[in-house]
Amino acid sequence: MTIDVRLERPAPYLTFHAGGLVHRVDIVTKDIGFTIGTELRYAGVVRSLTSVRLVAYRPGTKYHDVAEESAAEHLRKALERFSVGSRFSLAGVEGLAECLRAVVTEDRCCLPWDPDHIEEEPWN
């Protein structure tokens, strides 16, 4: 089954349909040296002030647009694995997060990233 995941710009976020509603996943990217840190956060049906982190990783690129396109592909693969039912609840978000982490782990180019970790000052 093919899931339609749309990448929206300029403020990068992804959308997908579940239970007759459009769900939003925000993409947060951060330049962390020679690569981009990418975080996917479930923002719900209507963009809220709070969101739930689904996954954070380094996709093996130094370009934000490539990281965003990679995030769309990772979410699409995770949604294909995860059966999105007619009611998408918090339990569904947790299940989606597990599938997304598995998809990212299987991608040879991706490495884990902790956005809460304070990066050391770059040395010259």
Question: What's the short version?
Answer:
By secondary structure, this protein is of the alpha+beta class. It is 28% helix and 31% strand.
Task: Describe it.
- By secondary structure, the chain is an alpha+beta fold.
- The protein is 28% helix and 31% strand.
- It has two helices and six strands.
- It has a six-stranded antiparallel β-sheet.
- β1 and β2 (13-18) form a beta hairpin.
- The longest helix is centred in the middle third of the chain and has 18 residues, at 64-81.
- It is globular and about 40 Å long.
- 28% of the residues are buried.
Secondary structure blueprint with pairings:
Layout lengths: L5 E3 L4 E6 L2 E11 L4 E9 L7 E7 L5 H18 L8 H17 L4 E2 L12
Antiparallel strand pairs: 1-2, 2-3, 3-4, 4-5, 5-6
Provide tags for this entry:
about 120 residues; 6-stranded antiparallel beta sheet; globular; 2 helices
The helix content, as a percent range, equals: 25-40%
What is the approximate shape? globular
Q: Enumerate the spans where pLDDT stays under 50 for 5 or more consecutive residues.
A: none
Rg over alpha carbons: 14 Å
Structural class: alpha+beta
Instruction: Characterize the biggest β-sheet.
Output: 6 strands, antiparallel
Please state the oligomeric state of the protein chains shown: single chain
Overall pLDDT confidence: 85
Q: Which percent range describes the beta-strand content? A: 25-35%
Count of β-strands: 6
First-last Cα distance: 49 Å
